[in-house]
Write a structure and sequence with these properties.
244 residues; Glutaredoxin; two-stranded antiparallel sheet; 34% helix
């Protein structure tokens, strides 16, 4: 059965609802996606031109879509959405972040080929999250036992794998720490201002200090990462350090 591309002929942006819908659609053709927040004033100001962009690209091989980042927070975190609106162009398995003018003409030029000029800064599209993720970290010995069981006792091997998967999934859900939190700016907050917040825990709360991002207004929520990102080092520098 052929999957119909229901974004190319749309004269209004397609609303992508959740991770599954997002990956089912994005993998078909080029897409220009707007990660937005319903309360964001800049997002509201962009709505008319974003709808006009969808109308201009109707009938082409490029779809125009929207994602409510406040409703689909895991998807927003996967694509490192830290401000709104966050405009990202998807083509050939790569992600191009749009940082140009938020005008119809500028966005149309980017979608019709201008994104190719930013190929150097494009990032690979993150892999689709899988329900098998909890089994990825199985120890080698456990994996070997499962392999033997599957070859000698298929039914027993299947039951053992199902039990381990359930255990792994429950453990992952219980132990997994969130990658980011959503914080509401306090009254009178200004860019760069630090203020304390309290993270609710199962047994006890934890306090931390966060900084208000640029353009924040009182009561406006924003994302704060909890984990430090990995920083790559130049291989030559690493080998030089070993030699010393």
């Amino acid at each position: 059965m052929q999957l119909l591309f229901d974004g190319a002929g749309c004269t209004s942006p397609v609303e992508l609802n959740g991770t599954a819908h997002f990956y089912d659609m994005i993998g078909t053709h080029d897409w220009f996606v707007n990660f937005y927040a319903p309360w964001c004033g800049h997002c509201k100001a962009l709505e008319a031109d974003w709808t006009a962009l969808a109308s201009q690209l109707a009938g082409s091989s490029t779809g125009v879509a929207r994602v409510d980042a406040t409703a689909h927070t895991e998807l927003a975190a996967l694509y490192q959405v830290e401000g709104f609106p966050s405009l990202q162009f998807f083509s050939g398995g790569r992600v191009f972040s749009y940082a140009g003018e938020r005008s119809l003409s500028a966005m149309l030029a980017f979608a019709e080929g201008g994104f190719k000029g930013d190929l150097l800064h494009a990032q690979p599209m993150p892999a689709r999250p899988s329900w098998l993720d909890p089994l990825v970290g199985l120890p080698r010995g456990v994996a070997e036992v499962l392999d033997v069981a599957a070859r000698t006792r298929p039914l027993a091997g299947a039951l053992l794998a199902a039990g381990l998967f359930a255990l792994g999934a429950l453990t992952a859900m219980a132990c997994r720490r969130p990658e980011f939190i959503m914080v509401h700016a306090p009254p009178g907050a200004s860019a760069g201002q630090h203020f304390p917040v309290e993270l609710p825990g199962r047994w006890r709360s934890r306090r931390m200090t966060v900084a208000a991002p640029p353009g924040v207004v009182a009561g406006q929520p924003f994302f704060v990462p909890l984990a430090k990102p990995l920083v790559a080092r130049h291989r030559a520098a690493v080998e030089e350090k070993k030699d010393i």
